[in-house]
Amino acid sequence: MECPTCGGGTRVVDSRATEDGAIRRRRECSRCEHRFTTYERLAELEPTVVKRDGRREPFQLEKLLTGIRIAFIKRPVPQSDLEGVAEAVRLRAVHQSRGEISSSEIGDWILEGIRRLDPVAAFRFASVLRRPDDIEGLQRELAAIRDAPASAPGEPSSQPALPLEGTNRSTNQTAQPPSASD
Ligand SMILES: [Zn+2]
């Protein structure tokens, strides 16, 4: 590896494993004696996403997160929980796919994760994810909302707002449907 300062050759002066499985290497330039550290990690292979129309695209965590955020607009759930849902889906895709994964499967996984956090957001996400003829699936989400212990103030549980109606100008969300739905 070249020295980032002078481009000279470097040697490893120390090497150890970190707690998260990376290899931490301390290097020293043999020309200018600059010392620096590198971390070496096994690259995780994220699968290619196969969409309903057969088109393929790379797995994009940010796109997942956009769909999740839309479902949670004005819901009392911390941002870190939404990121947790997206990251769990990403890991599942890495470990369970064999190079390719369907967008509908990803959508189902996201819905599972959202359901654990908030039934209203789950209904919103399901209403975008599902095709209009999947009335039963939506009725299940509605039943989950009714069975939930309490709803947040100002959000009547019998009439959840749909996420994509363009009425949320104040939230500076650019309305994109979740990746799993297209
Ligand atoms: Zn150097």
Q: Strand order of the main beta sheet, please?
A: 1-2-3
Q: How many individual helices?
A: 5
Listed once per kind, the bound small molecules are: zinc ion
What is the end-to-end distance? 43 Å
Query: Total strand count, please?
Result: 6
Structural class: alpha+beta
**What's the gyration radius in Å?**
22 Å
Descriptive overview:
The chain is an alpha+beta fold and 182 residues long. The protein has two domains: 10-40; 48-147. 37% of the residues lie in helices and 16% in strands. It has five helices and six strands, in the order E-E-E-E-E-H-H-E-H-H-H. It has helices at 61-71, 79-96, 103-117, 119-129, 135-147, and strands at residues 10-17, 23-29, 35-40, 48-50, 56-58, 100-102. A three-stranded antiparallel β-sheet has the order 1-2-3, with no helix packed on it. A three-stranded mixed β-sheet has the order 5-4-6. Strand 2 (23-29) and strand 3 form a beta hairpin. The two termini are 43 Å apart. Bound molecules: zinc ion. Zinc ion binds next to loops.
